[in-house]
Amino acid sequence: MPTAARLVAAVLLAILGWVLSDFVRPLMPEGTDFGWFNFVNAFIGLWVGWSVMGRRAGRGFVPGINNGLTGTAVLIIWALGVHSSYEMFRLAMRNRYDGPMEAITAIFLIASEFGIIIATVPVIGVAVIGSVIVGCATEYASKRWT
């Protein structure tokens, strides 16, 4: 059921996904083709905000902050999974893997490498501050427009 809290969570988490994408770009190796990177992360943020955060809104401001932290963590995990799967398919089309199991395990290796690359103080700081803002705004929307 559409609610104001779901809409606010979806829009703000999509914006946070876009901003985090801009913070991650300089950390990646030089010459990386990003293509639809920001748009994919914004869409993941839109989906996570609507389905995960919006459903859990309306329980108070401390749970709202926890909701924001959870939503941002889910956003980051899904983004790592999507982008590492894409990278695996890109490498698989160049015949880098001997079989399907090697390709599937490569998704987790690539995701862990990406996770280590983006685990910097600015990215974590923006993620935490942004998640608190998104969580409080979602909770405010839930209380204001019920």
Give a short synopsis of this structure:
By secondary structure, the protein is an all-alpha fold. The protein is 77% helix and 0% strand. It has one domain.
List the helices and strands and how they pair.
Blueprint (H helix, E strand, L loop, with lengths): L3 H21 L12 H17 L7 H32 L7 H19 L2 H24 L2
For the structure shown, list the relevant keywords.
146 residues, mainly alpha, 5 helices, elongated
Would you kindly provide a written description of the structure presented here, covering whatever features stand out?
The radius of gyration is 17 Å and the shape is elongated. The chain has one domain. It has 146 residues and is mostly helical. The longest helix has 32 residues. The mean pLDDT is 94. It has five helices and no strands.
Q: State the shape.
A: elongated
What percent strand? under 5%
Q: What structural class do the secondary elements suggest?
A: mainly alpha
Number of strands: 0
Overall pLDDT:
94
